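Researcher: Next sequence.
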Amino acid sequence: MTDAAAQGAGDVYDVAIVGGGPAGLSAALNLVRARRRVLLIDSNRPRNSATLVSHGYLTRDGISPLELRRLGREEFLGYEGAEHRMTQVQAITRSDAGFVLDCSLRNKTSSAVAGTVLVATGLTETLPGIAALRTFYGTSIHSCIECDGYDKRDQPLAVIGEHSDLAERALLLAQWSDDLIVFTNGSDAITLLEEETLDARGIPVDRRAIAEIEGDRDGMSGLRLADGEVVARSGGFVRPTWSSELGFLDGVGAEFDSDGLLVVDDHGRTAVTGLYAAGESTAPGPQQLIVAAGSGARVAATINRDLVGGIRDLADAVQ
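Model: Next structure:
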């Protein structure tokens, strides 16, 4: 979009928030309560949409992730200056008017201009290529141990993964069940030293490839390995591959770390003036919902103070 087109796209929002999960919603609520004109852009396609219930969110333990988002949008939209668009940002560029956000979803395009942008898009996840794994994901099999470990307590569980943190995840899950088997799915995710450590804790390691997750309407019943053996398990935890989809920032010169996450300071500021990030778009990546919400509130406070102006100069002068 040209500068002239940006000027004609309507009033400039104080803040545009990209992503309507707990981090984005929390930031949006705090900023609109600070009397900022806030545009929330979100397609309502969270990575945890397969999960029936969420846990660990104070006063909302056991709520559906989609219901939590709906309630958050409803609270946000109850304030003057709040606007929500159900779309996806395809590109962000700079103009004399501020940041220009070009959006589209299902062949419907729109644009917006904002003086400040907060990125809170979260992550996408890719599961190992195991047949029927997606069928039981979110019910019998989960990825967040802190979120769902309690509900799988004392059950015979599988710990599935192909990443170097697999042993660490198994040791953590042992807090909830002493009947665990670690499956590397044919990978070298577990070192010999780690296998010895797990064995000493009574956690066996199976290095064979997994062909399929077996079960029925009542849930998972076991894992069928590539050699045909079926190992009985009633549930498990899988380590997905997480990745960010932040290509829409290519036009603003944002800095990314080796994991493709936005590099920010302790307050959520990126290297680009006026561009901030919160939640899973920043290191360390995947977070519990309540942690992401806290991150959004913290960065919102930084944005508001920066928009007020002069506060950082006063603090530097005192020092």
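Model: The first strand starts at residue 13 and ends at 18. The chain has two domains: 3-123+244-318, 127-238.
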